[in-house]
């Protein structure tokens, strides 16, 4: 008799799989809300004598503790993996390429909306007499958070293979992901390997968390609940604490000024332990969250907000840049000392104004998340076309992550104009697949301005 090993936490896949999981939707919205709150509350800005100085409120003593909860990228990648599993499970194997193409379009089109404003805006600001340094810094920051989309484009291209890997190995593959992440860190920190090697962990770390989400989406984590989930969470946070205490990792789970290195850029293996801690706590209250989210009014709000999550992520930093520019440059109001009485006095108005600007951006740009796409089928998208389009989108997003929309780099080979052209080319390559299909209604866009579905 041949013995087989199944990891005890991974139950057989649920049948049939759910088509929607409100727990996953709430978890994603919670994570994005924490991302927004952290980015809006942590900047410390001073502008004097034409020079802009930026710092971080989390550098206050003990501020690193906040990052163990506010570093929620593990939750976002987990939610993405769960959604991927539930979506792909409803499709035939032959429809995988069409699914990937549609997902790439959903990621890329909202970025083009961001670029439509931020390619010309820095130049307009300079023409109106704004100082060059703050404009350049702000335009760079607008693109900085697009790193997530670059990583997600790569994982999206690999998603069908990752789903099949999860079905074949049922959790054993997670050992391989973790081993790669740990090996990369050992090579970097013990043997002096270049930091560029660390970017393998974009797949090893975030791919592992995404893979856990795939297993959740297939119903294999339903045994992790109650005390078992609490114990798993405690184990994860304890492992992270040991790694920080005895390893090379800084206390903060995000990059902070003064730290010798960042746990985020590139990602380190300690984030895997943090992910276990956060997911354990989340799964411990899954039933309560799901029951609350199932209330009709709550479900309606969750559904509406889920349809604008990408817009919130893309536009909360531009909102910060614009409001901070007016407050600091135009009105001369530097950031008070973090956590001081003056800081607390102004934080409500600060967040309210930021929220208003973000609400305007959502009103204008959230429709790009819901643009009607053509019905792509397996024969529409060849593997080579799909890979080329994905690489074009990914390369463009990576360039914007590094340099943003800085006006002084507009015409550079890796500048914003070339980056946006690369993303646009990837989108057009995917849309051209549908246009070539006999009987496609995609050509009606030219007449109506709307994409047939």
UniProtKB/TrEMBL annotation:
Coiled coil: none annotated. The keyword Transmembrane helix applies. The chain crosses the membrane at residues 65-88, 100-121, 141-162, 174-191, 197-217, 229-249, 269-285, 312-331, 343-365, 386-405, 417-435. Pfam families: Acyl_transf_3. It comes from the Bacteria. Keywords: Acyltransferase, Membrane, Transferase, Transmembrane, Transmembrane helix. This is Acyltransferase family protein. The lineage of its organism: Bacteria, Bacillati, Actinomycetota, Actinomycetes, Micrococcales.
């Amino acid at each position: 008799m041949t013995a087989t090993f199944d990891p005890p936490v991974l139950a057989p896949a649920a049948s049939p799989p759910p088509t929607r999981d409100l727990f996953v939707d709430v978890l994603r919205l919670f994570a994005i809300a924490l991302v927004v709150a952290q980015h809006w509350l942590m900047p410390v800005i001073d502008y004097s004598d034409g020079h802009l100085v930026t710092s971080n409120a989390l550098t206050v003593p003990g501020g690193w503790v906040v990052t163990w909860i506010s570093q929620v990228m593990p939750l976002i990648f987990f939610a993405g993996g769960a959604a991927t599993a539930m979506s792909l499970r409803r499709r035939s194997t032959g429809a995988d390429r069409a699914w990937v193409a549609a997902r790439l379009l959903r990621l890329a089109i909202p970025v083009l909306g961001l670029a439509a404003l931020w390619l010309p805006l820095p130049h307009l600001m300079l023409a109106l007499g704004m100082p060059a340094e703050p404009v350049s810094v702000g335009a760079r920051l607008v693109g900085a958070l697009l790193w997530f989309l670059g990583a997600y484009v790569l994982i999206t291209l690999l998603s069908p293979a990752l789903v099949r890997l999860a079905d074949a190995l049922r959790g054993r593959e997670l050992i391989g992901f973790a081993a790669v992440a740990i090996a990369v860190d050992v090579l970097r920190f013990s043997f002096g390997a270049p930091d560029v090697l660390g970017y393998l962990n974009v797949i090893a770390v975030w791919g592992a968390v995404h893979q856990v989400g795939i297993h959740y989406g297939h119903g294999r984590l339903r045994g992790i609940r109650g005390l078992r989930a609490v114990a798993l969470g405690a184990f994860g946070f304890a492992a992270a604490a040991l790694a920080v205490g005895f390893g090379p990792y800084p206390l903060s789970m995000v990059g902070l000024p003064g730290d010798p290195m960042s746990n985020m850029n590139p990602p380190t293996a300690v984030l895997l332990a943090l992910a276990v801690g956060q997911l354990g706590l989340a799964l411990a209250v899954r039933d309560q969250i799901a029951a609350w989210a199932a209330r009709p009014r709550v479900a309606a709000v969750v559904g509406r907000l889920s349809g604008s999550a990408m817009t919130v992520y893309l536009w909360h930093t531009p909102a910060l840049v614009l409001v901070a520019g007016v407050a600091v440059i135009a009105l001369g109001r530097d950031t008070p000392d973090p956590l001081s009485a003056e800081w607390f006095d102004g934080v409500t108005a600060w967040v309210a104004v930021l929220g208003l600007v973000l609400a305007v951006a959502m009103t204008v740009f959230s429709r790009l998340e819901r643009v009607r796409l053509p019905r792509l089928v397996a024969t529409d998208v060849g593997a080579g076309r799909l890979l080329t389009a994905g690489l074009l989108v990914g390369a463009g997003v990576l360039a914007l992550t590094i340099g943003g929309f800085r006006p002084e780099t507009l015409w550079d080979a890796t500048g914003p104009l070339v980056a946006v052209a690369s993303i646009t080319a990837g989108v057009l390559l995917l849309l051209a697949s549908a246009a070539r299909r006999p009987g496609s209604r995609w050509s009606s866009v030219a007449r109506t301005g709307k994409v047939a579905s």
